[in-house]
Amino acid sequence: MGAGVLILVILAGVAAFLLVEAWPALWAEPDEVPGGDGIILYVWPLLFGTLLAAFFALLLAAPLAVAIALFITHYAPRRLATALGYVIDLLAAVPSIIFGLWGLSELAPLTVEPTRWLEENLGFIPLFEGPASATGRTMLVASIVLAVMILPITTAVIREAFLQTPRLHEEASLALGATRWEMIRQAVLPFGRSSIIGGAMLGLGRALGETMAVAIVLSPSGGVTFNLINNGNPSTIAANIALDFPESSGLDINVLIASGLVLFAVTLVVNMTARAVINRRRDFSGAN
């Protein structure tokens, strides 16, 4: 109980700090805020970029995490599964700046030609409208890097849930003539549904707050666009704070903290929503 109360006190303290420090920026005149358009128009492109990068990172990582977890728990030989589990877990120990450097130096150049193909063949879709970047420093690369970064924690949560599937449920499904895939659909996936959601939301939380990897990869322009292959990328809140804070002073610092308050609120809402979904799904879980 003491540990739980301490966590709540710390959370309340962080929220109070952000609110107090952001208050001058929230009531400042529009022309006093960087850009001269007010705090809302300053934060909105950053919030849009944060949500866009995190959404596509989760879109890439979540299905892959489920597939990896299923392979490790129900398909791979024991020795291979153990080795793969260690490798996936080790990805979580790699510093984010290393992922950023990898994305900038290796992944970005590799995406130049594929993004040109996407522009030529799928340019009618707003996501690939172009013009394609000549450097590869795009929102697409940032999303891929974020997907790799959130893959370990998402996979670990889902893998442990699949391992805890009641053995009798699996054997009963197989005894009734189900194939291995049918058994997984009937017994494993229903049992792990809440953990899949929980693991995905944990990954989303990390993607929302990731800083250095995004700051290194992206070449932001401040615009709001769904285009994933252009250089005109919106930045993210965390990356913008990291890049601008050292040279800021006075009201500019309050503006950056105000954007941090928005990120704090978004992360809190995401986690509360995930908890609500998990609690609602628990009554319908295959574990029952």
UniProtKB/TrEMBL annotation:
For the ABC transmembrane type-1 domain, which residue ranges apply?
A: 47-274
Its Gene Ontology biological processes? phosphate ion transport
> How does the entry describe its membrane topology?
Multi-pass membrane protein
Q: Which Gene Ontology CC terms are recorded? A: plasma membrane
What are the GO MF terms of this UniProt record? phosphate transmembrane transporter activity
Task: Please state where this protein is localized.
Answer: Cell membrane
Record's keyword annotation contains Transmembrane helix: yes
State which residue ranges cross the membrane. Answer: 46-72, 84-104, 139-158, 195-218, 253-274
Q: Which SUPFAM superfamilies match?
A: MetI-like
One Pfam family from the record: BPD_transp_1
Where are the annotated coiled coils located?
none
UniProt entry keywords in alphabetical sequence: Cell membrane, Membrane, Phosphate transport, Transmembrane, Transmembrane helix, Transport
Claim: Nucleotide-binding is one of the keywords in the record = no
Family affiliation: Belongs to the binding-protein-dependent transport system permease family. CysTW subfamily.
Known role: Part of the binding-protein-dependent transport system for phosphate; probably responsible for the translocation of the substrate across the membrane.
Descriptive protein name = Phosphate transport system permease protein
> Which organism does this record belong to?
Streptomyces mimosae
